[in-house]
């Protein structure tokens, strides 16, 4: 009698049958698979946003650089040397200051309150404001090459005189011109130093297109930012307009420039239905030249 009661008690104890275990396991697999797919999707979305952010950062860097160069350029002043759809050659502002002294017997200028990069290579040139008479119609800008750069102590230019206060110039620049060409340059005249720079879209050894530059007569491109799309896909497109808003191919008539940039991510993002692909984005802006 006691044995039957013990056997009946064990049979009434709680537990899972094999069928119940299989059902629970099946449900667990479905839940885990759903969570896994959700994590995969979230990771794919994160990668996509990260690559898009990199693309947009590159596009903003390229747009800001080109826009700065165009805003500083004067087409009528000859700053645009050559214009193309995928590249531009222009005089780029490298340094600024004011004239505070002039050499007595040679074309040397003492420059004060300088900012930027001042070198004396064959690729550098200077622009100095030359006042004419008392009016404004005869004012001009002298443009010439840089013949040399000197420390103030070796340049032979006297100290600057500002309202009775004497100060040494920051540097002395020799301009490649006779001294008579600088007649009319007054103390306080604006001074700008330029370098010829070639910006363009180029194909690098990695098989990707990048925004690059060549300084002066450099033979190879210096990588700046990218990668960008190929020229056929508007990786970089420059559209030039005159003062009336009409397209122009004359560098001296350009007053506005449309900059179109299409960037690509450096890495690829996996897709749900296919292989990994690059992420793309586009930026367009219009810039007005200095004059």
What would you call the structural class?
Answer: alpha+beta
Counting H and I runs of at least 4 residues, what is the number of helices? 3
Radius of gyration: 34 Å
On the 0 to 100 scale, the average pLDDT is: 84
Which range best describes the helical content: under 10%, 10-25%, 25-40%, 40-55%, 55-70% or over 70%? 10-25%
Order of helices and strands: HHEEEEEHEEEEEEEEE
Beta-strand percentage range: 35-45%
The parts where pLDDT drops under 50 for at least 5 residues are none
Strand order of the largest sheet: 2-3-8-5-4-9
Number of domains: 2
Number of strands: 14
C-alpha end-to-end distance: 114 Å
Main sheet: strands, sense, barrel: 6 strands, antiparallel, barrel
Shape: elongated
Question: How would you characterize this protein structure?
Answer:
The protein has about 290 residues and is of the alpha+beta class. The chain has two domains: about 50-90 and about 195-290; about 90-195. About 25% of the residues lie in helices and about 40% in strands. It contains three helices and 14 strands. The chain has helices at about 1-10, 20-70, 150-155, and strands spanning about 80-85, 85-100, 110-115, 125-130, 140-150, 160, 165, 170-175, 190-205, 210-215, 220-230, 235-240, 255-270, 275-290. The protein has a six-stranded antiparallel barrel with strand order 2-3-8-5-4-9. A hairpin with a 7-residue loop joins strand 13 and strand 14. It is elongated and about 110 Å long. It starts with a helix and ends with a strand. The mean pLDDT is about 85.
């Amino acid at each position: 009698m006691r044995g039957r009661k013990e056997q009946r008690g064990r049979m009434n104890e709680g537990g899972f049958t094999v069928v119940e275990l299989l059902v629970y396991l099946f449900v667990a697999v479905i839940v885990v698979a759903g969570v896994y797919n959700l994590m995969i999707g979230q990771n794919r979305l994160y990668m996509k946003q990260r690559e898009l952010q990199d693309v947009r950062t590159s596009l903003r860097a390229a747009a800001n650089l080109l826009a700065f160069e165009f805003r500083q350029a004067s087409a009528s002043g000859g700053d645009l040397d050559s214009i193309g759809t995928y590249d531009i050659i222009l005089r780029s502002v490298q340094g600024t200051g004011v004239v505070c002294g002039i050499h007595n017997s040679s074309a040397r200028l003492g420059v004060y309150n300088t900012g930027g990069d001042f070198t004396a290579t064959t690729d550098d040139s200077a622009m100095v404001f030359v006042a004419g008479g008392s009016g404004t119609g005869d004012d001009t800008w002298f443009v010439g090459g840089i013949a040399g750069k000197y420390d103030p102590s070796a340049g032979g230019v006297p100290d600057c005189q500002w309202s009775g206060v004497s100060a040494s110039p920051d540097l002395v620049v020799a301009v490649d011109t006779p001294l008579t060409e600088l007649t009319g340059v007054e103390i306080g005249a604006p001074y700008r130093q330029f370098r010829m720079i070639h910006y363009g879209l180029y194909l690098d050894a990695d098989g990707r297109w990048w925004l690059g530059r060549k300084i002066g007569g450099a033979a190879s491109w210096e990588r700046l930012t990218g990668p960008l799309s190929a020229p056929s896909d508007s990786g970089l497109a420059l559209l030039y307009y005159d003062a009336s808003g009409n397209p122009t191919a004359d560098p001296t008539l350009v007053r506005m420039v449309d900059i179109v940039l299409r960037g690509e991510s450096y890495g690829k993002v996996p897709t749900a239905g296919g292989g990994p692909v690059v992420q793309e984005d586009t930026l367009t802006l219009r810039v007005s030249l200095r004059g």
